[in-house]
Amino acid sequence: MPADVVHATDRTVAFRDIEPQAPVHVLVVPRRHVDHAGALTEEHAEDLAAMFAAARAVAEAEGIAGPERGYRLVLNVGKDALNSVPHLHLHVIGGRQMTWPPG
To answer: Is 44 a catalytic residue?
Structure first.
């Protein structure tokens, strides 16, 4: 499936979500396969750190970083969390005031 890639490193790729929940909704995925966040172990530490660094870079590039703005980072695990993609991905969501509960 084609993707609108917004950031890439040797460890990660970040692309726009095809069903965005906010003006900015980007998925950051590791290049190395991991099923989901519940499958992470100590051996994934560098990939996970790279994902969070990529998320920060995406937020900065999209203009949602900093104390006046802000963004939400989300990892979903399992069907109850509506995780439908069997590959670890970190949602970077922002560009509007977030609500609680999420929705």
So the answer is: no
Instruction: Classify domain 5-94 at the CATH topology level.
Output: HIT family, subunit A (3.30.428)
Q: Please list the helix, strand and coil fractions of the chain in percent, rounded to the nearest 5, in that order.
A: 25, 25, 50
Domain ranges of the chain: 5-94
Q: What is the pTM of this model?
A: 0.90
DSSP three-state, residue 13? strand
Q: Single out the catalytic residue among 7, 44, 87, 89.
A: 89
The tens digit of pLDDT for each residue in 84-103 reads 777 889 999 999 988 877 65
User: Which stretches of the chain score pLDDT less than 70?
Assistant: 1, 78, 80-81, 102-103
